[in-house]
Amino acid sequence: MPARDEDELRREQIEKLLREAYVYQMRNDLLRAEERCRQLLELDADNAEALELLGDIQERTGRLEQAVHSYRQARDLSPVDSPRYAAAERKYAAALLKQQGISAEDLPAEPASPLLAIAASIVFPGLAQWLMNDRAKGVVLMGLWAALLLMMAFSSWGVQNLERGGGAFLGLAAIMASVYIVSLIDAYQTSRRGGVRRKPKSGWEV
Questions:
Q1: Domain boundaries, the chain
Q2: pLDDT digit string (tens) for 19-53?
Q3: Which of the residues 73, 85, 110, 138 has an alpha carbon 20 to 30 A from that of 181?
Q4: What confidence score (pLDDT) does residue 34 get?
């Protein structure tokens, strides 16, 4: 058989084993899922996807030391700028922490970015508060801003009032400016206090 045909058959077998491993994992048949991973790795010992999946199975069955080893191999075999490298790195770190009785969810949260908070408030007052999980304040500010926009556009106090001197228009504009500024300041201060919007932890923040 030509070498090209052998390589093609080998790739097809690898893909088949990987598909079956995922199917068995989804069915919670972890024994067969692990068997498929190991059969695949006999064909391709450097298959990072199979190693990561094997680590998932080992972690779920309580074999943390083996999972750590599999995740580390998957990470080291993946390009540094690839999503698989980031996923394996995160799982590797979480498994190491779990060995020490620490959950990644127990780590302190990273503060929200003040610049992102201000940017969100510039787009729409109250949006930053919503994104930082201060939902009540966010709803109030967004609702108030939406109501003011509608009044400015369609009510007799808004742009229509310009034809009659603009007194009510200026008052409404002043209220809108106040809401806008308050939203910006509050978003900045909330983010500086740490906020409540959290980034996913890699596990290396300790």
A1: 3-106, 114-192
A2: 999 999 999 999 999 999 999 999 999 999 999 99
A3: 110
A4: 95
Q: What's at 82, amino acid-wise?
A: S
CATH class of 3-106: mainly alpha
In which residue are the tokens 């010992």 written? 45
End-to-end Cα separation, the chain, in angstroms: 55
The CA distance from 19 to 127, in Å, is: 42
Query: Which own/partner pairs from 8-12 qualify as long-range (CB within 8 Å, at least 24 positions apart)?
Result: 10/43, 10/44
φ, ψ dihedrals at 99, nearest 5°: -60, -30
pLDDT digit string, tens, across residues 152-201? 888 877 777 666 666 777 888 888 888 888 888 888 777 766 554 444 44
55, 91 Cβ separation under 8 angstroms: yes
Please state, as a whole number, how many other Cβ atoms lie within 10 Å of the Cβ of residue 135. Answer: 13
d(CA 169, CA 159): 6
